[in-house]
Amino acid sequence: MTETPLVLTNARVLDPDAGRLHDRMSIRIEGGRIADVAPGADAPEGARKIDLAGKTVMPGLIDCHMHVVAWSLDLWGNMIAPTSLTALRAARVLEETLARGFTTVRDLGGADHGLVRGVEEGMIAGPRLVICGKGLSTTGGHCDLRQRTDDRPGIMSDRLGSMGVLVDGVDAVRATCRTYIKEGAQFIKIMANGGVSSPNDPIHALQFSRDEIAAAVEEAENAGLYVAAHVYTDAAIARCVDLGVRSLEHCNLIEAETAARAAERGCIAVPTLVAYEALAREGAALGLGADSVAKIDTVRDGGRRSLSILREAGLPMAFGSDLLGELRKYHCLEIDLLAEALSAADILRSLTTVGADLCGLAGTAGVIAPGASADLLVVDGNPLEDLGLLKDDGAHLRAIMARGTFYKSDLEGMA
User: Fold this and answer.
1) DSSP per-residue letters across 198-259
2) Both ends of the chain: CA-CA distance in Å?
3) What fold, for 6-59+367-409?
4) pLDDT at 414 exceeding the cut of 60
5) Domain residue spans in the chain?
6) How far apart are CA 286 and CA 280, in angstroms?
7) Reported confidence tier of residue 184, pLDDT bands at 50, 70, 90
8) What pLDDT, on the 0 to 100 scale, is given for residue 41?
9) What is the rounded CA–CA span in Å between residue 137 and residue 206?
10) How much of the chain, in percent, has pLDDT values that exceed 70?
């Protein structure tokens, strides 16, 4: 965290909501936060000063769908790994993610409060971490990794490397939600549809009863939080929207009427197209089962179609990757996939202000504004015209600051 005031001068500042740059701005940073943003302001006495000479300052990026404990595509292997090893691996994932310019990530199942504190206390050089605990799944659902002949009870949901927990019945759902909220969850995650990486549930399978979903929504809302749901099919999405789910993960097979209703209800969608593209390229070679490989094309093709449907409905989209294990190297490819249907300004909003809203950080993350956390990137050029500045694993980022600390910088004037 910056101990003495730091002023970045002569900068072009990206306003994601307006989709424009403001020229010749100064940004004053104190105590890890942005104290002031103003045109041509002088640095106060005693402040460090860096002249950015027309470089662009933009908010740090936000990924709203990650699994930081998924070190490998071997999900069983992740679960049986020692907890200490899993934590060290998660720290490496977070460090890699920050190096790509992501200063906030929302974990959709696996990360715990210890990892949150590890970042906050500076033990991990990583992005701010927003967690849900484990993803809630039904027996036989998306988090049930047992083969059909495996009759051992449950899964090892107490392990840090497990992304989900099996929960059946309204009372069990309530108890699990309350436990995760007590343990620091900032939202609740449920698996409301079949999935690709799970062995026994076809994509179209609806999971959890309406009463179970309603119970999760009520428990989350009682705590001032919300529910995120893993959903693919239009029927599953429509049911979740009607029951009060706010965050719609994936949404590959959504139709126009449901998208419009979701927009009216204040939902946010999180497309994760790169997950299926990466699985199609390397999933089989990395050990993904034949049943899972067979599901990929259905959601992969539907996902590309979904972007136009979501855009036309006015349903806000937050950026998400959902890459597991060795597939993390494709992280920045999601930008290319989104660009097939969305403008650069829309993609930048998904990476910043929309993501901040979904993380409960509106005004704190995703913006360069007084009072916001000092999470920012410095680039040469205009990201509204060249999204390539955000690709190649952060190679084009001149500086990365998270919570007032530079984690990368080749700027003149750095001590």
Assistant:
1) -SS--TT-B-S-HHHHHHHHHHHHHTT--EEEEEEEHHHHHHHHHTT--EEEEEEE--HHHH
2) 14
3) Urease, subunit C; domain 1 (2.30.40)
4) no
5) 6-59+367-409, 61-358
6) 11
7) very high
8) 66
9) 11
10) 98
Based on the number of CB atoms within 10 Å of its own CB, is 4 exposed (0-12), middle (13-18) or buried (19 or more)? Answer: exposed
- Residue 78: pLDDT band with limits 50, 70, 90: very high
Q: Which residue has the tokens 């106060």?
A: 44
Tell me the pLDDT tens digit for each residue of 9-64: 999 999 999 999 999 999 999 999 999 999 976 677 889 999 999 899 999 999 99
pLDDT at 290 over 70: yes
Global pTM value: 0.95
User: Residue 54 carries which side chain, given as an amino acid letter?
Assistant: G
pLDDT for 415 equals 42
Cα(189)–Cα(177) distance, integer angstroms? 9
Q: Supply φ then ψ for residue 282, to 5 degrees.
A: -135, 0
What does 61-80 look like in DSSP terms, one character per residue? EEEEEE-TT--SS-HHHHHH
Length of the chain, in residues: 415
Q: What angle do helix axes 234-242 and 256-264 make, rounded to 10 degrees? A: 20
Closest by CA position to 213, among listed 248, 182, 263, 253 = 248
Sign of torsion, CA 180 177 108 208?
Answer: positive
Helix or strand (DSSP H, E) at 262: helix 256-264
Under CATH, domain 61-358 is a member of which superfamily? Metal-dependent hydrolases (3.20.20.140)
Query: Which amino acid does the sequence have at 144?
Result: D
Q: Can you tell me whether residue 55 is helix, strand or coil? A: coil
